[in-house]
Amino acid sequence: MPDYGHPLEFGTFITPGNDPPQNAVALAQLSEQLGYDLVTFQDHPYQPAFLDTWTLLSWVAAQTERVHVSANVLNLPMRPPAVMARAAASLDLLSGGRFDLGLGAGGFWDAMEAMGSRRLTPGQAVDALSEAIDVIHGIWSVGERAPLRVSGDYYHLDGAKRGPAPAHDIPIWLGAYKPRMLRLVGRKADGWLPSLSYMQPGDLARGNTTIDESATAAGRDPREIRRLLNVFGRFSPGRGQLLNGPSEQWVDELLPLALEDGIGTFILGSDDPATLQQFAVEVVPALREAVARERGSLGTVEGTVRSAVARAKRRDGIDYDAVPASLADGAVEPGDPGFHRVRSTYMRAGSPGVVLRPRNPAEVVDALAYARRHPDVPLGIRSGGHGISGRSTNDGGIVIDLSRMNAIDILDKSTRRIRVDAGARWTDVASALAPHGWALTSGDYGGVGVGGLATAGGVGWFAREHGLTIDHLLAVDIVLADGSIVRSSDDENADLFWAIRGAGANFGIVVSFEFEVDELAGDVGWAQLVLDASEPAALLERWGAAIEAAPRELTSEIIMGAVTPGRQAVAQVLAVVDSDDPDTIIDRLQPLAEIAPLLDQSVQLVPYAAVMANVQGGSHDGQGEPNARSGLIEHITPQFAAAAERLLASGDVYFFQLRSVGGAVADVDADATAYGNRSANFSVVAFGSDAERLDTIWEEVYGHFTGLYLSFETDLRVARLDDAFPPRTMQRLRELKKRYDPDNVFKDNFNLAR
Ligand SMILES: Cc1cc2nc3c(=O)[nH]c(=O)nc-3n(C[C@H](O)[C@H](O)[C@H](O)COP(=O)(O)OP(=O)(O)OC[C@H]3O[C@@H](n4cnc5c(N)ncnc54)[C@H](O)[C@@H]3O)c2cc1C
User: Fold this and answer.
1) C-alpha 693 to ligand 1 mean position (Å)
2) Can you tell me the mean pLDDT for 99-113?
3) Rounded to whole angstroms, how far apart are CA atoms 486 and 483?
4) DSSP 89
5) Which residues line ligand 1 (CB under 6 A)?
6) How confident is the model at residue 754 (pLDDT cuts 50, 70, 90)?
């Protein structure tokens, strides 16, 4: 007889009575307090004496914190499966992944018909349930781009939108007794949920055989299917009939159900608090112990099995069984329901073979060691997933995603020293510093990650006043290619520290950064101006001149799109003035407002954290591959401005941006860090949809540049490396690369080893 090795779980089965309605909720809360894993309710929507089960499940999920909730089992024919799938995913998201889906084919047809349901024969009801399971999975499959179309005998969907994806892999458990339903369990379900009181001796064994044969025929491993069982009984001092007696009798009688009939989840049907308590306190631990003992002596391996459907989505060349135990919990594979949340980045579509999500430096070491055992598959390092030059996703490779390492700590108030983990986002850094009246210049978008930006440069809203983000860096902890965790600062591994500030992506995985941050006077001036751009060259030139003439507390950028014939050309000028004095802010902005007719304007006095709170929610769903070209330029000369005008008129550029660097950025010695092009006043970037056409039109502006900030460039050819790093810097970087990463493990972002 089978023992499928499922870790034991326990649930309660509570009557959803409505008199008084809070009873069922209180019993659910008691179940949670008593340590049960699951709370379930029967579902009879035609029964006025009962609360509606969906509503009750939602209420209970909101009134509990840990326990899972499920119907036992839902009456499918009375609910459209697409709506049910969405409701299930919604409740799962709201409850933090605590909703499980017990489903039934329906049964009380007179009552159901009276409520408006179509009467089905038992065979039809099973077929309808089978179709419904496909619909439910289809709605949850947000990774599929095409809308959901199902043309079944019972359900017809014509282009339904998919989603939302549930928070966890919601198991579908079927209440089943007859062979046809049992075969459906074997083919499509994640669990079998009968009641012991409806079973004759031998029924469980026969049911398991039918399920297992059907599962095997469908290419599944029978262990994918959990066996759950509703049990009813009474505690009494003397031994009596089945589950009527003292706790020891219960343990004796449940033990063979676990070991010989493979039951992994026992669900106790009772509304009596004392019974729920006695079972939890006396039966559950004793049964766990007895099962563990028997499994130990028989050598039964305890665990759950990944489904055949999920395994089929695994990629070649990755040893999935060797994922280190420390990372197994957070590892996401293509077959996992959360894969769509981690596969792509902000800019790019991707389809990695596995995304590892370490929670601390030791786990980063494990992840890197695992990745290094796969030298032939691509490796991406991800912090915030906003890489433009850096990939941080791939096709069929490994991604080490640091987003769960996102702590922000104040180390020393008097010196304004903070430590930030690589996976934090800049909006969170700005919010954490705000209560102290501090800020750290980072970038213009709060969703960008700390790890990618603070290893490359960091051109932010206080660039002219306070320099680059890397200019505030005091030390890092970095995992090197050989797996060592090294601290690097001006005093420790100083050459590495030099390299990390500008070319960090080549040297390892920085796990945390220590910065000295700046004090703000108060709120800042935040301006968004819309200007007439019908004379783009003149506008750019005037903007450049105004910036160069402005005091350093002003930092700005100008953004333009393709010029479309017949439509007014506009430019957006964004600026931050580091002052909380309205007169100073207006004074600093006035020259910018005068460079062209002003079409619209918004100037606000806001906390810096509010400027950085411009983050879109949700997971990244970048599409395709971005094409960006970038350069650093000293001044906006008439020749450059004319070339830029032609670039905009070409129609091949849909986003063109100039932003101020200069000021304090140029105060730092060019040899002090690996970010070597410090004399430029402006950084330029253009995005186009066609790389070849972009290259052709870019030729004209390229000659005006004195260097390149690598973060905005997607062309990784060697010539761009020479643009990004002056010869002396480049030579030193290449020597250090050989020393710190001799096998060229870190190569997806401006690879120096070429
Ligand atoms: C919308 C948007 C706005 C931007 N605005 C600005 C801006 O204002 N100023 C500016 O300077 N930049 C800006 N950038 C560029 C941005 O700084 C870089 O793309 C940066 O790499 C993103 O960091 P991330 O951690 O989010 O990226 P990820 O995609 O996670 O990483 C990008 C690359 O950085 C490297 N990397 C990531 N984490 C680490 C780590 N912990 N250790 C070592 N290497 C690592 C890897 O090579 C990786 O491929 C912007 C980008 C976008 C998409």
Assistant:
1) 25
2) 95
3) 9
4) H
5) 345-347, 380-388, 390-392, 402, 422, 443-445, 448-449, 451-453, 455-460, 504-505, 509-510, 711, 748-749
6) confident
